[in-house]
Specification:
Blueprint: E1 2-3, E2 6-7, H1 131-142, H2 149-160, H3 164-168, H4 172-229, E3 233-235, E4 241-243, H5 250-254, E5 262-263, E6 266-267, H6 276-286, H7 292-316
Antiparallel strand pairs: 1-2, 3-4, 5-6
Keywords: Metal-binding, Zinc, Zinc-finger
Protein name: CCHC-type domain-containing protein
GO molecular function, one term: zinc ion binding
Amino acid sequence: MYRGGISRQTRVEYVNRAGQRVNPRTGKPLRGYGGGGGFGIQSRLGGRGRNGINKPIIKKKRPLPVKRIGTLFGNLEPIPTNPRIDPPPRVCYNCWQPGHPKRSCPRPCVARFCANCGRRDEDVETCPRCCQRHKLWLESGQQRDEVDETDLDQHAEYHNWQHEEDNTEEDACDIVLREVMRRNEQQEAMRQRELQEMEFRRMREIESLRRVQEFDSQQIFMRRQRIKDEPHFQVSEVGSFNPRPDSPNYNNIMGASGMGNSYNGESVSFNGDEDPVNDVLKLAQTISHLSPMTQDMIMRQVMAERREKRQVEESWV
């Protein structure tokens, strides 16, 4: 048969007339030979040695991970974890399910476990990984306010037994605790600063109000003394001072305010020789630049002063 320029014979059977060869070291092969076997090629997994012989893979046993950090404190004993009694990372210690901490587990208590590392059938006091560190943790919590140099030396000796690589690594729990304490101190300092500023502003307002009150009281006292010293006052039998209508300060004394009733040098108060309507028109023209509310307040004050003045004059008559 000739295809593509290559001549090849078909249906040619090659027979090994020498027979089966057996390797004296490995023995007979595990497959059929010469077409009589019904099994495929079988070989063991592994690489070849120096003599070309297949050797099985010898896997090195990996050491189990060592848990050195817990939920309460770190620097735990270097005991390898056991998958049957130690929970996997980032799961609830009670049900071994992710998504929630042990304190809010919806399932009932399955078994007793260590509150720091989660080891089953152990407590914090009996856990071989956490018991020694737990004692130091309790002592540091109870004697936190009265720590002396001897306690610090004991803690330093306990931490120095670790390896050099462990000493260089800082405990994650201590890092988190230090960060939380730093933020709390910052918030407390900011709160104290705000309280001091509020107290300073309050004291300043109180001082300014006190000065204003003292100034007003002083002005009132000086005004009363000035009025008493004027010769236009007459003393009644009961000892009270009554101003006379012919006094030049009669309008200011009997009015609601101590300011003069004049605008732009022209009198706008009531006078018997002038027309009151003309005075009101002058007053309206003088205060036309003010707001309507202010104009209304001034007009009402002027009318009240005139009414009060009229009553005083009628009482004198």
